[in-house]
Amino acid sequence: MSSSSDANIITLLNNTTNQLNRYLAISIFLFGIIGNALNTLVLSQRALRLNPCSWLFLVSSMAYSISIVSGLVPRFLSSWNADLTNTNPLLCKLRIFIFFNSLTIAFWLIMLATIDRWLSSSINANHRQKSTLKNAQHGMICIMIVSTMIQIQQLVCFEANLTNAPIKCYTKTVACSILSDMTFALITVLIPLLVMFILGLMIISNVRQTQARLRPMNMPIDSNDGQHTTTVVFGRQKKTDRQLLKMLFVQILVILALTFPLALSKLYTTFTRNTYKSPLRNTIENFIFNLLLNLVNAASGMPFYIYTLTGGSIFRKALFDLVKSLREKMRW
């Protein structure tokens, strides 16, 4: 009875995994590619791209698009047994390298945007002067070079046609698994999230300090009806900076919620790789891994929708201006 029950659960989970890779992956792919394409068009407008934080959002959207294509196309192809990266070693290595490298670059660019917001919100004039488009561009170049050097090990560690792994294109040895998983967990996810969290608290502190310095003493003013009113000025913080900060904080929370579970899952898979597991346990772990992998790709497709909902009038106005200009071009 137990064996029959396990077989039914295994069949159910395998079918569910196949459906996730087929339909959920396609859905994430479509809304992610469309969202990042709109992001690129909106943020590339002159009013936004000259802001260092917006410019970093723009480049990160491009990196997200690359990670979505390299991460999701093989997912739904595998549901029809048409994923060549599962059987071709070269395609397997290239796909994994491009996926992890683009994802790392995207996350680190968001971290760099957090650093820029911290600089721009500082009460120290020297710090504020460092928040420039030129510095953001230099930082982007450094991130791309460092990320490529770190992720180059994926070309060596991954192999196709593996059977004792969650997916066929996976790390070929335990040592490679530890190296790849620790790189993803620490370099791609945890370190940038930790830096973003710490700097987020420092940004809040900077904003409060600025407000405290600019807040004048409460001064009573006599009105015509003899009542007293109080006027309080909270400082002249730019509207654009406030909205960009809000967009940044929400994006940090989304990255944490959708990527951290996969980092833990990959570490668990690595350290239990040589442990005997029943077929049912293997099926359950493979199902969880595939689900979390789709969630990571969903994180790459969320920025446009985050910016639209939290970006306030500045982002939505840029979006409406883009739609208006496209309509005028279509009329011509």
From TrEMBL:
| Residue ranges annotated for the G-protein coupled receptors family 1 profile domain, each copy included | 35-307
GO MF annotations for this entry?
G protein-coupled receptor activity
User: What subcellular locations does the record give?
Assistant: Membrane
Judging by the UniProt lineage, the source's domain of life is Eukaryota
Ligase as UniProt keyword: no
- Record-annotated membrane-spanning stretches: 23-43, 55-76, 96-119, 140-162, 182-207, 244-267, 287-307
Keyword Isomerase assigned to the entry: answer is no
Q: Which UniProt keywords apply?
A: G-protein coupled receptor, Membrane, Receptor, Transducer, Transmembrane, Transmembrane helix
Task: Report the InterPro entries cross-referenced here.
Answer: GPCR_Rhodpsn, GPCR_Rhodpsn_7TM
Its record classes its membrane topology as: Multi-pass membrane protein
GO CC annotations on file:
plasma membrane
- Principal localization reads membrane
Name of one Pfam family that matches: 7tm_1
The name under which this protein is listed is G-protein coupled receptors family 1 profile domain-containing protein
